[in-house]
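Need tokens for this chain, all 183 residues.
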Amino acid sequence: MKIACLLADGFEDIEAIGTTAILRRSGMIVDYVSVVNEPTQTGSFGTKIIVDRLMKDISVDDYQGVFIPGGRQASTLRQHPEVLKFVSSFAQKEKWLFAICAGPTVLGVLGLLDNCEYTSFPTTEEFMPKGIKLNKAAVRCGKIITGAGAGAVTEFALEIIRAIEGKEKAEQIKERILFRAFE
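Here are the structure tokens for all 183 residues:
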């Protein structure tokens, strides 16, 4: 499984990096992709990422899924015509869509969450007026998986692994990272 993680300045650091790290542990390939075609993007808390690819150099056909972290970047992504076209193409080709925190707002403005259960950061509901918001860490609706926010990164990543690679693989990763091992 190869996933494009869309980044612009203001991405939520732990959502982008934490989710990617867990997915990579399961063997998935995750490319950091600059939607503004700059080689470095800076997170909300100052983390700099040297991206793997520039959006102008990739195609939807290069990936089986797209991942949209939250943070202030969500506003940039919602207003970026190329991002909206790119994400829409994933939906049209019935590929995987992953978004966390304010990231689901990109899916919302495209109508991809209409009549679909989802979760997101509180106060983002205005962008998903026809969606069905659940108060959960991670929610799957068909080929769309959403996460609530930075505190839900592990549950979100494990839900992606569960959906793509199965429950057994998700449990293996959960054990390897000691997720809730001491409760």
